[in-house]
Amino acid sequence: MNGTEIIDVVYGEGWDFGRGVVLGPIGAEAAAARDAAGEPYAVVLRQADSLGAIVAHVDWSHHYLGIWVSDPHGRRFMEVDLRRLTADRLFLTSRRGWAYPDERSPEFAADAGRVTIELRPDGRGTQIVEPQGDRGGSRHTTADVPEEQRWFPVPEFGQWKALFAPLGSDRAPGCELREVARTGESGGPNWRAPRGMRPRHLNELFTAGARFSTDRHEYTVWDPIPAGTLRLSSGRLVARDPTYGECEQDAGFTVTVAPGDYPVQLASAGYTAEYEGRTLILDEYTAARVLVSARPAVRWELALLPGQDERLLRDGEFYGFGVDAGTGAFADASTAADLGRRFWDGQVSGVLTEDDHGIAVVDDAATGTNLIAYPSGRGDGAYPVWIGRDTDGEVACFVADMLILSGAELLPRGAGEGRSAK
Description:
Shape: elongated
Distance between the termini: 77 Å
Helix content: under 10%
Oligomer: single chain
Mean pLDDT: 94
Low-confidence stretches: 418-422
């Protein structure tokens, strides 16, 4: 291209890609104030009257900078996800690209080829190539992305040429950015920063008589089931599948408690079902918890292992422990791996004793620790552990959520309800 490429810069709540319209336009001064306060806003870079645009969604309160790029037809063909992990540096968590077969293909067409790169700060990464898009076939390889292409400086407000670097573009030296007057239409943001899974109704899972509604059943919570006393000699809790060998969960959670003995409870809820003309009451185990104190939990946070960073999570994601044997367990970090092996040996030999609820305890007389195993809800999967804190910010409990009722609606308690266990 001859001459300097002129790119207009506008600010707003968001950008309508299909119509090429700024939603909720705001001025540069207001956008700068939002940037400084960590409030969300969008910045749009485009050539005048073009549907092609580079749109940055900025929300520093959630450590997020997301960039979308659209072509002259208004179709998005690249997405970049960056997280602000230090005051002055952004980490590239992912970059996705779509290759449309022709100009008539709609945005995100099923047969549009895709290439996705997913990266982690520890240096690991994966590249996923899907030449046929949703129509099958993919290749997974290690992402060969050098360190300097994983980390980028946090752009100062107004210095938007910095957005080209994470896109792999070299357009910055040959273009000129100019801020233009606010234009567009009223409206709120059409985006939000990705957020990891949030806990729901964890106290109610252990409150007898609480009622939940799903698209299939209405559940009533029974009394918590005592599952024994967990002895934590180091105060560092491990949640894991007890049949695994040594695993990363054995490091234990970064939030610790005082060494001591703590009650463990299993949550269950029942629902009615019709079978061959009979009405049955069926139970499901919905969560397990370690009670650290008798004080109620009033706020929750995700339990993390060393090296895990909640700021990297995408919508609905969580860090949790995997299960392949339908069983979860709590143990102290000092002996979790060894007691897990003994649990497995006991299962294989048939000498392991479980109660009517599938709860089993493995003791270690030498260290005074133990492992308490329990059924993991509906079986295999991955499950988060949440830390409940009391009004003083002290740890009140750890809850392993089996995710059976995490998406359910909590119902009001009516007259005649509140019965305890069956």
